[in-house]
Design goal:
This protein is an alpha/beta fold and 392 residues long. The protein has 15 helices and 12 strands. The chain has 2 domains: 223 residues, 3-Layer(aba) Sandwich (Aspartate Aminotransferase, domain 2); 132 residues, Aspartate Aminotransferase, domain 1 (Alpha-Beta Complex). Helix 3 runs parallel beside helix 11, helix 4 crosses helix 5 and helix 12 packs parallel to helix 15. The longest helix is centred in the C-terminal third of the chain and has 20 residues. The structure holds pyridoxal-5'-phosphate.
Length: 392
């Protein structure tokens, strides 16, 4: 068994295990309730004094949400995890737990655009600054770390899909006493387990692969009991971005097929990416799996990558010609999706959210879904050829 198979087997086990359910139901119940009552004054008092742990109100503890959190913690190799109402709720609550006015957070370049906007708008308003560094340049990271309150990573990065040496970056941060956080939505714990590489906290947009069916917006953070405990007490109760029981139930369902879905996304995306790389109209393909070997710590690749057209290709004509690939943001579900960078850049140039996300205007992002590599390629190749013929 190689490493990748081992991770796959571990992940399958982690998502399969449930505590005993009522009626021996194979699907855990949705405890769809806001509150839980006490049978005696003594029990209520004991619970409020923290002598007994049991649910009282679902913004705090809910059994279905807790079941999702335990599964995710196990998948990530973490002691604990917390579910949130969106990926951004997980990201903002986590950052705000560990910073105060006057602090600086260090981030890798090419963050998820709304994380970047969080830094540039809300955090700035509260006196927290952000600086950006190329995560591939370890000397630059080492120079920028001293004095930072937090080091925020993504690998691969959004849109550009650069990969970083997570183990080395985490060790550098540890050396300087800086807390590390990474957005692991792209790889999922099936293909990358940052906690085992020394990262302190792992964030997810569970709206993507963890849910896997494009029917839930949710988020999560995993890490040590101590750090998760800080988030649970410092920000989660007051920002209130709690995961709902029904969404947790959808995520538990999604997790059951996560390992096989990831393998299918990987195979189809690699097949499409290789064929794109060989196409005359394509300048480059940004996909971490096209080199000779994967970076250390990444055991597989997912379905999201980008490519850059050669000059003169009519991108709107390409987009409109596609039938299976739908025009849409987000990713992680069954359906294949396409987003031209130019559209996102124009949105990003709005008044509050000016963002130079450093992406080529001829860049197009693809999410390769589960429809099958060959039919997807024929859709894509047809549209590329059409757009090349109608060159502007
Ligand atoms: C979608 C996404 C987020 C934000 O998650 P939401 O669930 O939409 O709030 C964060 N990081 C990455 C990489 C994402 O793709």
């Amino acid at each position: 068994m190689n490493d990748a198979d081992d991770v796959f087997a571990q992940a399958s086990l982690a998502v399969a295990h449930d505590e005993a359910n009522a009626f021996d139901a194979v699907v855990p119940p949705i405890v769809q309730t806001s509150l839980f009552t006490f049978s005696t004054y003594a029990e209520m008092e004991e619970t409020y004094r923290g002598l007994k742990v049991r649910p009282t109100y679902s913004r705090g503890l809910n059994p279905t949400v807790r079941m999702f959190e335990e599964k995710l913690a196990e998948l990530e190799g973490a002691e604990d995890a917390l579910g949130f109402g969106s990926g951004m709720a997980a990201i903002s609550s986590t950052i705000l737990t560990f910073v105060k006015p006057g602090d600086r957070i260090l981030c890798v370049k090419h963050l998820y655009p709304d994380t970047y906007r969080l830094n540039q708008t809300l955090l700035k308003r509260f006196g927290i600054s952000a600086t950006y560094v190329d995560g591939r340049d370890e000397d630059a990271v080492a120079k920028a770390l001293p004095g930072a309150a937090l080091f925020y990573m993504e690998s691969p990065t959004s849109w550009t899909f650069e990969t970083h040496d997570i183990r080395t970056l985490a060790a550098l941060a540890k050396h300087h006493g800086v807390l590390t956080v990474i957005d692991n939505s792209w790889a999922t714990p099936v293909f990358q387990r940052p906690i085992t590489m020394g990262v302190d906290l792992v964030l997810h947009s569970a709206s993507k692969y963890l849910g896997g069916h494009s029917d839930v917006v949710a988020g999560a953070v995993a890490g040590s009991k101590a750090l998760i405990g800080q988030i649970r007490s410092a920000t989660l109760p007051y920002l209130g971005g709690k995961l709902s029981p029904f969404d947790a139930w959808l995520l538990i369902r999604g997790l059951r097929t996560l390992p096989i879905r990831m393998k299918a996304h990987e195979a189809a995306a690699l097949s499409v990416a290789r064929r794109l790389a060989a196409h005359d109209a394509v300048e480059s393909v940004e996909h971490p799996g096209l080199g000779n070997q994967l970076p250390d710590g990444l055991t597989g690749t997912s379905g999201l990558f980008s490519f850059v057209f050669k000059p003169g290709i009519d991108i709107p004509a390409f987009a409109d010609k596609l039938r299976l690939f739908k025009l849409g943001v987000s990713w992680g579900g069954h359906e294949s999706l396409v987003v031209p960078a130019e559209v996102v850049r124009k949105q990003a140039a709005g008044p509050n959210s000016a963002i130079d996300f450093g992406v080529d205007p001829r860049c197009v992002r693809l999410h390769v879904g589960l429809e099958g590599a060959d039919v997807l390629w024929s859709d894509l190749a047809g549209a590329v050829d059409f757009a090349a013929r109608s060159q502007t």
